[in-house]
Amino acid sequence: xxxxxxxxxxxxxxxxxxxxxxxxxxxxxxxxxxxxxxxxxxxxxxxxxxxxxxxxxxxxxxxxxxxxxxxxxxxxxxxxxxxxxxxxxxxxxxxxxxxxxxxxxxxxxxxxxxxxxxxxxxxxxxxxxxxxxxxxxxxxxxxxxxxxxxxxxxxxxxxxxxxxxxxxxxxxxxxxxxxxxxxxxxxxxxxxxxxxxxxxxxxxxxxxxxxxxxxxxxxxxxxxxxxxxxxxxxxxxx
Length: 238
Description:
The protein is mainly alpha-helical.
């Protein structure tokens, strides 16, 4: 019976997803520099985005109009407010993630919505990326993407976005839970989050980062349709 169940999980891809969940929970966050050493074009684009400045918006007298709209105090310092930090930093109080007990110097690569906020804690899969890149370069051999799933890399980016953008009471199709975001669609069209419109774009105004062609280091599933579409419209990096 166990063998039949295992075959079913493998055939549907659920086994890899479960492995990813189990391993990913223990993976350590590394900070954005661990990613941008190789993905420099994406990093440069991200640094100009609103995500990169998410922590800054918690400081007093920043984003005053938006805070007033959400019934927040514009003069208040929210940089130590746990209800806000979960969505304005990376890996809040998780292994290797942003911590209130650490100095700003130690956590500066985790302040803001960084690479790992969307793609998962890189402690277990960053090395796999490097090894796979070397394998392609030296042996012309691609690597099965399932190793990344088993190591905890996140491929459901929409779910990662929804954790914050759709975390308000009554959000359609999302199991929201406290602390809820004060920025809800009731405040205006700007806060009506639509993953396809917000992320699935090649515009320079992309709030995440500009999408660039990847070198095809990995092969096989899972390859969500959203990723295929992003690669179709992706730009060539210099």
